[in-house]
Amino acid sequence: QVFPTLVGDMDSSGSLNAQALHLLSDRLRAKAVFQTHQAKFVTWQFDTEYRGDDCTATLTLGNPDLLGGSVILVAHFLQSVTSRLVLGGELVYHRRPGEEGAILTLAGKYTAPKWVSTLNVGYGGAHAS
Known about the structure:
The protein folds into 2 domains: 1-46, no CATH class; 52-128.
């Protein structure tokens, strides 16, 4: 692959979906996503991802509006505890005028020779598969 990479498409009404990807180092990748509806920006999102030997961390900044005081910030982290067990979590923070909140979700995955089990526990309850 060649970096930076730009990918996008535009429909007949002028709406655009575009991504810019850049490999900052062997372990660090950055991505920007833009979406417009005709001439109005609908979404912009910036991601940075780190891939270690036994962990992954991602930080996402969504729809930042410095003048309006709103933002969505998402942080993910996954760590291999053993060759079969992965533990991690996600923190979602959002802010807009008159409203602010954060949600933490914890996650785990166990891989056996013939099956995989996952568990997510957070504010919305628990989900197992």
